[in-house]
Amino acid sequence: MKRLLEDRYIVITGAARGLGYHFTRVALEAGATVLMVDILGDLLKERAEAFQAEGLAASYIIADLSQPEAIDQVATTVAQAWPYVNGLINCAALATGVGGVDMMDYDPDLWDRVMTINVKGTWLMTQAMVPFLKKSGAGRVVNIASDTALWGAPRLMAYTASKGAILAMTRSMARELGEFNITVNSLSPGLTLVEATEYVPAERHSLYVNGRAIQREQLPEDVSGTALYLLSDLASFVTGQNIPVNGGFVFN
After folding, report:
1. Does residue 251 form part of some domain?
2. What angle do CA 27, 128, 8 make, to 5 degrees?
3. Could you say which of 55, 175, 223, 242 is the most buried, measured as most Cβ atoms within 10 Å of its Cβ?
């Protein structure tokens, strides 16, 4: 049986670690060719080369998504290597070190940086990939949001607001790109055990576990299957939707 993403070209941002890394693995194992994008150059190179050693079709480009010229370079790399792009996962985000502060004390400069990377970076990366997604005839965009925007996580104002913006942008993008047979959906994970959540206090982890319908910690593998679905032909008529994957902490 043909694998779900056989002969597909997929761009994944934030691919060096965390959910982005796990999304990359599941896409590669489903048959895709993946361009990994991240600012963490050494780790990105190491992990791309490890995938290549397994015989998987991974390549990489180091890029700071707060810089429009870096996104332009990603587009140039794609144009030189691939005939089109079938899918894009916007996973890159600033999450570490942005919480634990009351809204009255939040640093405006940190707010701006979170919005620049998480929101503007998602918009500009999608904008840069649209011409290649159009060429595929059936493009897929998956924006990684967060269930923090669904329940209003306290003391995490900038991150929560940025992920709320991702939800709104997803719907607007879906309206604009539907005529080109490009689907745009968002995926909202709960608190997941990855590198970026190591700083989260134990009481917040307990809040999530105890509040879920399925009362256990959330693993990256719990989320990656939904991303694979949204990239595939199985989701060809699903667009403008947000899918929470959080064990029932928030119901849609």
Report:
1. no
2. 25
3. 223
- The rounded mean pLDDT for the chain is 94
Kindly report whether the global pTM for this prediction surpasses the value 0.70: yes
238: left (phi over 0), alpha (psi -120 to 50) or beta: beta
Residue-level pLDDT at 1: 44
pLDDT higher than 90, residue 38: yes
- The domain total for the chain is 1
Q: Which residues pair with 242 in a beta bridge?
A: 186
| Backbone φ and ψ of 142, nearest 5° | -120, 115
CATH of the domain at 198: 3.40.50.720
pLDDT band at 2 (very low <50, low <70, confident <90, very high): low
Beta bridge partners of residue 140, listed in sequence order = 87, 183
- pLDDT at residue 39 greater than cutoff 60: yes
- Tell me: pLDDT of 55 over 60: yes
| Total Cβ atoms within 10 A of residue 122 | 28
